[in-house]
Design a protein that fits this description.
Layout (H helix, E strand, L loop, with lengths): L2 H6 L4 H28 L5 H28 L11 H4 L12 H26 L4 H39 L1
Helix pairs in contact: 2-3, 2-5, 3-6, 5-6
Length: about 170
């Protein structure tokens, strides 16, 4: 962090760097969960859902870049070893052992909801104290909220599809 930024920051920078490293670990895990889940995906609407999951993966990677850059700007060191990701992350990585589309979506939804909590905490911690981190957190938070909405829509569409199939069988 630039000297003037350090002088005017009204927060514990070490605590913030810790929070950001935790978020960084979660972004890398989210990236991989989306990426591998999209490739493993089986079931109805796969051709519509797969590109959206890959887009989400790309956006999670972009979040990781923003967070890592901010950690460096604050004078910290981003996590250097992938072995640290699961140790730092509060959001779980859910291995896609069941490739059925609905299960993959539910796993990603859990991750998005955890990310929403993480970035809300970072935004609350930095609001009025560190404007650059606050703006970054709000930007990422908005993306995570959109991801949650996208996944909820896909799950609702799948539920509707199941209901329509049941009606056809009657």
């Amino acid at each position: 962090m630039g000297q003037k930024a350090v002088d005017i920051a009204k927060l514990d920078v070490d605590k913030l760097i810790q929070m950001l490293n935790e978020a960084l670990a979660e972004e890398w895990l989210a990236y991989y969960q989306y990426w591998i889940g999209a490739r493993m995906l089986e079931g109805p609407m796969r051709s519509e859902i797969e590109p959206e999951l890959l887009l989400h993966a790309t956006e999670e990677l972009g979040h990781a870049e923003l967070v890592a850059d901010r950690i460096i700007q604050l004078g910290g060191t981003p996590l250097l070893n992938p072995d640290q990701w699961t140790k730092f992350a509060r959001c779980d990585y859910e291995e896609p052992t069941d490739p059925y589309v609905e299960e993959i979506l539910k796993q990603n939804l859990n991750g998005e909801r955890c990310a929403i909590e993480r970035y809300q905490e970072i935004a609350d911690y930095t609001d009025g104290k560190d404007h650059a981190t606050y703006q970054m957190a709000i930007t990422i938070l908005n993306d995570e909220l959109e991801h949650e909405h996208d996944i909820e829509d896909f799950l609702a569409d799948l539920e509707r599809l199941k209901e329509d199939i049941k009606k056809l069988r009657l």
